[in-house]
Design goal:
CATH architecture of the largest domain: Up-down Bundle
CATH superfamily of the largest domain: Recombination protein O, C-terminal domain
Shape: elongated
CATH class of the largest domain: Mainly Alpha
Number of strands: 8
Radius of gyration: 20 Å
CATH topology of the largest domain: de novo design (two linked rop proteins)
Order of helices and strands: EEEEEHHHEEEHHHH
Number of domains: 2
Largest sheet: 5 strands, mixed, barrel
Strand content: 15-25%
Structural class: alpha+beta
Number of helices: 7
Strand order of the largest sheet: 1-2-3-5-4
Helix content: 25-40%
């Protein structure tokens, strides 16, 4: 395999040998890949300072194994400067993709969503909505998205504004016939809002956060995300 200047973002890097680096990258054409950047930590390396998260790059690589060799890297755009909660939000998205995306499985729609989401993390007013909508696209892309406008029954009964619905993990929503609402019960109006990507009130954003946490935790077998463990108080806003 020889790929030349494919659009990409670095998700994570870690040292390999004395001067090299292994790069976990998300590419527009080949999904998530692992690359060996030989000599990247050497003082005169052409890769030095380039292989950073949240920077739009063009990467070239070659190889046959799961770990291929990085041969070139160029800027596609100026780095997106994330700080504070915005930086933690970006780290959260990167960890989600590392944990949930199989390697060499291309997702061009998800790549576009990631590219469009990163600038929104800069501003607090855009951040929470951007995170929720990205999570929704991610789940759809990997085959675990749910229908938010139809029940998970054979007749696919439309979800109604005025009813409450129980989340059945791995299946979807069914009308709640119990008088006591549990933590996995959601208003039909909120589910329909999420179906239409309309997350414009605090209540709907809170519902969306609760719902996405349940779905993602289920996919991760309830194994915690490192970003949430590391900054639990701040990450609670996610």
């Amino acid at each position: 395999m020889r790929i030349k200047l494919a659009p990409a973002f670095v998700l994570h890097t870690y040292p390999f040998s004395e001067t090299s680096t292994i790069v976990d990258a998300f590419t527009a054409t080949h999904g998530r890949i692992s690359l060996l950047a030989k000599g990247a930590r050497a003082r005169r390396s052409c890769f030095r300072g380039l292989l950073r998260p949240f920077t739009s790059l063009s990467l070239s690589w070659s190889g046959k194994s799961e770990l291929m060799t990085l041969t070139d890297a160029e800027y596609r755009a100026a780095p997106i400067m994330l700080t504070g909660t915005g930086l933690l939000s970006g780290m959260y998205l990167n960890e989600l993709m590392i944990r949930l995306l199989p390697k060499l499985d291309d997702h061009p729609k998800l790549f576009e969503a990631y590219e469009n989401t990163l600038p929104l993390l800069i501003h607090s007013s855009d951040r929470e909505k951007a995170l929720r909508l990205f999570e929704k696209i991610l789940l759809n892309e990997i085959g675990y998205g749910l229908s938010f406008d139809k029940e998970a029954n054979t007749s696919q009964t439309p979800i109604m504004n005025e009813h409450n619905y129980q989340l059945i993990l791995g299946h979807g929503f069914i009308k709640n016939t119990h008088t006591d609402a549990s933590s996995a019960t959601f208003k039909g109006a909120h589910l329909l809002s999420l179906s239409n990507n309309w997350l414009e009130t605090k209540e709907i954003l809170q519902t969306s956060k609760q719902l996405m946490r349940l779905l993602i935790a289920h996919l991760l077998d309830n194994k915690p995300l490192k970003t949430r463990c590391f900054v639990s108080e701040v990450i609670a806003k996610f």
